[in-house]
Every structure is written in structure tokens, then in C-alpha cells.
User: What shape does this take?
Amino acid sequence: MTQDSGDRAAQHPIDGILDILKEAVEGGTPGQGTAFLDGTKADGSDNHGLLAILESVDAVQASHDVNGTTIAGHARHAAFHLEVIVRWERDGDRGPFDWKGSFLPKQVEVDEWAAVQTRVRDAYEALVAFARSRRDAPVNGDVTGGLSGAVAHVAYHLGSIRQMVKVVS
Assistant: This one.
């Protein structure tokens, strides 16, 4: 392992990106500082990661139209994007992808809302597993770019969903 100038073990680029993605999706580590989210308290409360925010709303709230979109739609789309990154990077699948359709349907019933949340978690976990499988390969700008894009995309939709929660709560 290489050393950086501060005499600390240098972090692999994929691990650094996954740390930020974890914060966006899972929230902060209880009682520790965060890179960009509000801090999660030591008891685990005030977690503002994507999964916790989605769990904080019910199907009716997730289906409430806010300026032409819904929380359910954003969650479906975020899951789809994470799935596409894995398909693109691992499988070489270059589409076409139905980006507009990935927001649909906008409304969900209780069981559908649970399935959307599971899909988000599964898509995130699949992306993390893929990224970790690439850790020992030479650093590749396509992979790190895809992962960086995942962070930006999840953060964007997390922010949108957090604002929408204020309207539907």
C-alpha cells in the first residue's frame, strides 16, 4: 500500500467514491462527521440518506404529485440509473435506455412502494459489489467516472426528494 504525504495509508479511488455514495444512500455514520449530509446523531436518528428518507414516507406521500413528479418516480429513476451503471460498466450494455419511462408509474400502492424501496437498495448494493470487484483492476476512468456520476445523480435526486418530503408531510 502506498503512503500519502501525511503518512496515512492512501485510499483507493474506488473506496473514496464509495464512501461518498454510501453517505448519500445510507446516510452518515451515527455520531461521526459527514462529507455533505446533515450529521446522523449517535443514536442513529436524523439519518438523511436516500434509504432513510424513502422509509420516512408512505405510499400515499410517495405518490403525491409535486409540480408534475413524485417521490416514487424519483426513487424509481434513481434505482434505474444505478442499474444502468452496472449494466454499462460490467455488461457493456449501451442501451437504448428509457430514461423518461424510468420515472413511471408515478403513483404506487403500499406493496409497490415497498418494492421500489427494495429496488433502490438492491441497485445500490449491486453497484457497490461491482465497484468492489474492480478494486484490484487498474484504475479506469470509465469506472471511476460512472461511480462519480452515481454519486452526483443520487445526491441530486436525494435533494429533490428531501424537498418534496417537505411538501407531502
